[in-house]
């Protein structure tokens, strides 16, 4: 069995169920799965917030939530969200449809959608190691993968490095750039 769940040697038609698991579907066939996964993610995020400094008092109290100004802002947020959804629905190219397969763009894969939604809740801003421990780990991992792919020397992380000897090679490394002035 391969990493993607497709046994080697299957006919193209027999591979379709595996590929169907990678996308939300042109007719929203897998949206119930996304809802279940995102509900589980929201519960996990909720518990992470509740458990962190669990003795602290609530910052946003039920009394605050009952105030008219709070309620008005929630209504405005809901209205703006509906407007955004309507505009995107009416003025976007439906790349999820097989009718657009010939274009340079296509549907976003299921793992990418889930990864994006989950990650946004944690806001792993890649600015410095102390502000982004997770993205720093990913950056190092991806940087080493790219270096290996380009055949640069990367040490085995499980081996103790030697500091002497004529065969010692410096380790390659990579850095994920961001948009804006830092990427120039």
Features:
184 residues, mainly alpha, 6 helices
Distance between the termini: 43 Å
Query: What is the share of helical residues?
Result: 40-55%
Radius of gyration: 23 Å
Q: Please tell me what the overall shape is.
A: extended
Main sheet record: none
Number of helices in the DSSP assignment: 6
Which regions contain 5 or more consecutive residues with pLDDT less than 50?
none
Structural class: mainly alpha
% residues in beta strands: under 5%
In N-to-C order, the SSE pattern is HHHHHH
Indicate the topology.
Blueprint: H1 12-20, H2 31-51, H3 62-66, H4 68-90, H5 110-122, H6 133-149
Description:
By secondary structure, the chain is mainly alpha-helical. Helix content is 48%, strand content 0%. It is built from six helices and no strands. The chain has helices at residues 12-20, 31-51, 62-66, 68-90, 110-122, 133-149. The relative contact order is 0.08. The model has no long low-confidence stretch (mean pLDDT 84).
Q: Could you provide a short overview of the structure?
A:
The chain has 184 residues and is an all-alpha fold.
């Amino acid at each position: 069995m391969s990493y993607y769940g497709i046994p080697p040697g299957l006919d193209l038609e027999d591979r379709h169920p595996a590929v169907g698991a990678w996308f939300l579907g042109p007719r929203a066939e897998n949206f119930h799965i996304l809802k279940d996964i995102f509900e589980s993610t929201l519960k996990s995020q909720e518990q992470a917030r509740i458990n962190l400094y669990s003795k602290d008092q609530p910052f946003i109290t039920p009394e605050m939530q009952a105030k008219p100004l709070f309620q008005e802002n929630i209504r405005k947020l809901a209205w703006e969200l509906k407007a955004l959804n309507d505009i995107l629905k009416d003025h976007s190219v439906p790349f999820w449809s097989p009718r657009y397969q010939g274009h340079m763009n296509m549907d976003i894969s299921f793992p990418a959608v889930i990864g994006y939604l989950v990650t946004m809740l944690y806001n792993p801003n890649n600015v410095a190691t102390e502000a982004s421990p997770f993205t720093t780990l990913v950056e190092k991992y991806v940087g080493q993968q790219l270096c290996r792919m380009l055949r640069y020397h990367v040490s085995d992380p499980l081996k103790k490095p030697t500091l002497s000897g004529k065969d010692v090679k410096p380790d390659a490394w990579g850095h994920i750039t961001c948009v804006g002035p830092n990427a120039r």
